[in-house]
Specification:
The complex is a heterodimer of chains A (207) and B (181). With 207 residues, chain A is mainly alpha-helical. Chain A contains ten helices and no strands. In chain A, α3 packs across α5 and α4 crosses α5. With 181 residues, chain B is of the alpha+beta class. Chain B is 24% helix and 33% strand. Chain B is built from four helices and nine strands, in the order βαβββαβαββββα. In chain B, strands 2-3-4-1-5-9-8-7-6 form a nine-stranded antiparallel beta sheet, covered by helices on one side. The chains are: A mainly alpha (207), B alpha+beta (181). Chain B binds a DNA duplex (17 and 17 nucleotides) through β1, β3, β4, β5 and β8.
Chain lengths: 207, 181
DNA sequence: AAGTTACTTTAAAAAGC
DNA sequence: GCTTTAAAAAGTAACTT
């Protein structure tokens, strides 16, 4: 009986140690990404439920933490790309994506695909663009979504092109290079989305 | 009358020769064969006609990929095994071949709003940040489809051409039921 | 800016790490 | 899970020219 009791203590000790490690890992990743405490909290909730449902087996704590954070960012509408999550954590993009799918499936978390709209505030502020430009960009994105111009396209590329167009329209022009760097896409992608949006939506050629 | 023509793009088939094989012994019969046993346990032999690639193992099992028809897959396997037999007459003339996977493409004819499909269609995964296609898992037939905004589709996982065809048709039917096409 | 190549996803088998 | 093969879909990336 004593042996059993000792094992229990040892196990719970390990459990607590793992949780402490996971939370410190979460803090590290979150601060590197400049995420608010609310998102960090949401991520810890996802992580804890993953532990409760014994979903850590066969997976690294770092990976589950990274995937929980990725999911929390999406749910809180302040998305980070898999590349950004992979950069700050010590988990590969592939592993984060795979663990994310596993967690959402096992925990019945259904998140709609990331909307380009959710990237607008962050990109705009990093580019020092006004609220008017942000509103215009969001308006462009919503029209694009209605016309099915976003199916299959990367959300960051769509957000970047919309911001670029809005910045030109409202006289706060930014270069494609600056927008591309902030959004983490290439200028070619911005150009492709830009052409598609200006041609298939209203907008006269504003180049 | 859904009648969506599908195009078989790739066939994966395996064969069991029924006798273990000394890879170094038969390798000389296969021109251009590649083998890095440290990297992968099988020989890699690429045939030009039918354009296929075969993976040959010491256990006497073989995998053939790349054929665009079952006939060509079977043909490629026989051509490859016949060459091997020139250096190992013990290899039987007859052996079993099994189609393991069929990849086919098709066009549904109408564009799809993937975000809408993702919301209403069951068993889907759609992550445009990673891949432009929406993944749809059908249970019967047990195949997986990749749906694109253009209306083009890829069906994989089928063991028979009929299942690939049925998979595409059921998908189109389901999309119609949900008013997504 | 156009072209080319290449990687993302899906399935499946093989032998072994 | 990984390694290796082939092939399509469409988007994006990285090099060349």
């Amino acid at each position: 009986r004593l042996r059993k009791w000792q094992r229990k203590i040892r196990i719970s000790g390990a459990t607590e140690r793992n949780l402490a490690f996971a939370l410190s890992e979460l803090d590290r990743d979150s601060s590197r990404l400049g995420l608010p405490r609310s998102v960090r909290e949401a991520a810890s909730v996802v992580y804890r439920s993953a532990v409760e449902n014994k979903l850590i087996r066969g997976r690294s704590i770092e990976g589950v933490v990274a995937a929980s954070l990725y999911a929390a960012c999406r749910r809180c509408n302040v998305p980070r790309t898999l590349d950004e999550i992979a950069e700050v954590s010590r988990v590969s993009k592939k592993e984060v994506g795979r663990t994310y799918r596993f967690l959402t499936r096992e925990l019945n978390i259904k998140l709609p695909p990331t909307s380009p709209v959710d990237y607008v505030p962050r990109f705009a502020s990093e580019l020092s663009l006004s609220g008017e430009v942000q509103s215009k960009a969001i308006e462009i994105i919503e029209k694009a979504m209605e016309k099915g111009l976003t199916s299959g396209r990367g959300p960051t590329g769509v957000a970047a092109a919309a911001l670029y167009i809005a910045s030109v329209l409202l006289g706060e022009r930014k270069t494609q290079r600056d927008v591309a760097d902030i959004a983490g896409v290439t200028e070619v992608t911005i150009r492709n989305r830009y052409k598609e949006l200006t041609e298939q939506l209203d907008m006269g050629v504003t180049l | 009358m859904t009648d969506v023509p599908i195009k078989v793009e790739n066939i994966v088939a395996s064969a069991t020769l029924g006798k273990s094989i000394e890879l170094p012994k038969v390798a000389p019969a296969l021109e251009g064969v590649e083998y890095n046993l440290e990297q992968f346990p099988g020989l890699v032999y690429k045939l030009k006609e039918p354009k296929t690639a075969a993976l040959i193992f010491g256990s006497g099992k073989l995998v053939c990929t790349g054929a665009k028809s079952i006939d060509n897959s079977v043909k490629a396997i026989h051509i490859t095994v016949d060459k091997m037999r020139k250096l190992d007459s013990e290899i039987p003339e007859e052996f079993n071949i099994k189609v393991q996977n069929i990849v086919a493409s098709a066009n549904l004819g109408k564009t799809l709003n993937l975000e809408a499909v993702a919301l209403d269609l069951e068993n889907t995964e759609y992550e445009p940040e990673q891949f432009p296609g929406l993944v749809y898992r059908l249970e019967d037939p047990k195949v997986v489809l990749l749906l694109f905004g253009s209306g083009k589709v890829v069906c994989t996982g089928a063991k028979t051409i009929d299942d690939a065809q049925l998979g595409v048709e059921k998908t189109k039917e389901r999309l119609g039921e949900l008013d997504l096409i």
